[in-house]
Write a structure and sequence with these properties.
- The chain is of the alpha+beta class.
- Among the domains are: 1-177, 2-Layer Sandwich (Beta Polymerase, domain 2), CATH 3.30.460; 350-425, no CATH class.
- It is built from 23 helices and 10 strands.
- The chain has helices at residues 38-49, 59-65, 81-87, 127-138, 142-147, 171-176, 186-192, 195-207, 213-216, 218-222, 231-242, 247-256, 260-263, 265-273, 278-295, 302-323, 328-344, 351-363, 372-379, 384-394, 402-413, 415-425, 436-447; strands at 22-24, 54-57, 74-77, 91-94, 100-105, 108-114, 156-159, 165-167, 179-180, 210-211.
- The strands form 2 sheets. The chain has an 8-stranded mixed β-sheet. Strands 9-10 form a two-stranded parallel ribbon.
- Residues 1-17, 121-127, 431-436 and 442-448 have low confidence and may be disordered.
- It binds adenosine-5'-triphosphate and magnesium ion.
- Adenosine-5'-triphosphate (ATP) is lined by residues 58-59, 74, 149-150, 154-155, 193, 195-196, 199.
Length: 448
């Protein structure tokens, strides 16, 4: 049953070659069933018992080969999505054009994809034709499925039949050599999907693989194609780049391959014009802290991450507005809004993250205040902790705020004592409330 997996051989790549199969037998590789999720094994065996081809594929095989722990296990098969659904009660089909089966086991989802060829479907085919078109043009052989993947390391198939690995693209050797190599002509593959440039940087950071010279070469040239990618997809990709425990390496990779100016145009420009390198040091320190938190299984937040990555842009916008004579509170709000708005052109940062991000920036000036009421108000602000952590991080760039950091470190634990010693240290300091005009304006800004 299922689709024939021995379809006629035809040239699958425009350049170098036909896909030639190498089989790596069980005794020649280290992928063991012990390291595969029991649920994935269940799916593989059930497909196999029902007469279908069943393979573990993609990132999981690659990660197991280098001794890693895959975070998810994907399965590829010649069974159609409907046939897969017929085999599992806990199965739902997702996606319209490329239907995938999700087999759900509590919190674990095993994604089961039918082998697929790379032919694009015409978007205006009639609905009733879709099924036929899908069968004819999207589903494919295992060889076609292999060559439509991105990197050779991601195109290995672990067979549940004999526990061998099927390699149509030389991926096994590349994994051993720890190199990321695009399948086919790199420029064509990037033009097909520019996000592959980010995937190259991300996977090389995550796996500690080098990017093959021919795969790396076109990236700076084609970097601007990323502007055509969907901003929501770029947001997701950014989270994977920076919140998976390899943020520093990812950032350095984006710099090396000249992708940073495309992803974060204003921040990259601000970093370039910051001659002392202080802001770049701060960003790298913040990313290193993020990596440490991920390693310790502590939570990390997209708001804080983007506050960090876009801080150089915010500082620059703020300095320009103030140089133009805009007063401080007004300039802060406008700089925050402007920088956020411009960044949205590239990366769709949802409001639930962009608003807290802006609060982290806008709270920074309030750390210089020592009046009792203001101190207590800031301490109870929902974003206090994030903003304080950000203030601490700013020490990497400048020592200017060391006094503030010390005051607020103390104030978190002993607010009364902190305020009293601040008052004693500066008895002439302004103790009354600021003019009401200013407070009103800040509130209006925050509500925008
Ligand atoms: P990770 O460990 O980060 O999940 P991954 O390689 O598993 O890495 P996924 O995004 O989960 O990445 O994709 C699963 C598989 O789908 C990949 O291994 C690859 O074979 C294929 N794939 C993913 N994105 C692309 C793409 N843009 N172009 C071609 N193939 C892709
Ligand atoms: Mg994956």
């Amino acid at each position: 049953m299922g689709l024939p997996s021995t379809s006629r051989r035809r040239p699958l790549m425009t350049d170098d070659s036909d896909a030639a199969l190498t089989i790596i037998p069980r005794d020649a590789h280290n992928v063991s069933r012990r390291d595969i999720s029991p649920n994935a094994l269940r799916v593989l065996y059930r497909l196999r018992e029902s007469g279908f081809g069943a393979y573990l594929v993609g990132g999981a095989v690659r990660d197991l080969l280098i001794g890693g722990h895959p975070k998810d296990f994907d399965v590829a098969t010649d069974a159609t999505p409907e046939q897969v659904r017929g085999l599992f009660r806990n199965c739902r089909l997702i996606g319209r054009r490329f239907r995938l089966a999700h087999v759900v086991f509590g919190r674990e989802i095993i994604e089961v994809a039918t082998f697929r060829a790379n032919q694009p479907v015409d978007d205006d085919v009639e609905a009733h034709e879709v099924e036929q078109v899908v069968r004819d043009n999207i589903f494919g052989s295992i060889e076609e499925d292999a060559v439509r993947r991105d990197f050779t390391a991601n195109a290995l198939y672990y067979s549940i039949e004999d526990f061998s690995i099927r390699d149509y693209v030389g991926g096994f050797e590349d994994v051993q050599a720890r190199v990321l190599k695009l399948i086919g002509d790199p420029e064509r593959r990037y033009r097909e999907d520019p996000v592959r440039m980010l995937r190259a940087v991300r996977l090389s950071a995550k796996l500690d693989f080098t990017i093959d010279a021919a795969t790396a070469e076109p990236i700076p040239r084609l970097a601007s194609l990323l502007r055509e990618a969907a901003p929501a997809r770029l947001f997701e990709e950014c989270l994977k780049l920076f919140l998976s425990g390899h943020a520093v390496q990812s950032f350095l990779g984006l710099e090396t391959h000249e992708l940073l100016p495309v992803l974060f145009p204003e921040a990259a420009a601000a970093l370039r014009s910051n001659r002392s390198g202080a802001l770049r040091r701060m960003v790298l320190k913040g990313l290193a802290d993020t990596d440490a938190r991920v390693a310790a299984d502590e939570p990390v937040s997209p708001s804080f991450l983007f506050a960090l990555l876009m801080w150089p842009a915010y500082c620059r916008a703020l300095a320009r507005l103030q140089a133009d004579g805009v007063n401080a509170p007004e300039a802060q709000q406008r700089a925050a809004d402007r920088v956020t708005l411009h960044q949205m052109d590239v990366i769709a940062l949802p409001r639930r993250f962009s608003l807290p991000m802006q609060e982290i920036w806008l709270l920074q000036t309030r750390f210089s205040q020592r009046q009792r009421r203001r101190v207590f108000r800031l301490l109870s602000h929902p974003r206090f902790r994030a903003a304080y952590d950000f203030l601490v991080l700013r020490l990497t760039a400048s020592d200017e705020h060391r006094g503030d950091v010390e005051f607020w470190r103390e104030a978190q634990h002993h607010p009364d004592a902190a305020v009293e010693s601040a008052e004693a240290a500066a008895p002439d300091a302004e103790t009354s409330e600021r003019p009401r005009r200013r407070r009103r304006r800040r509130r209006a800004g925050g509500a925008e």
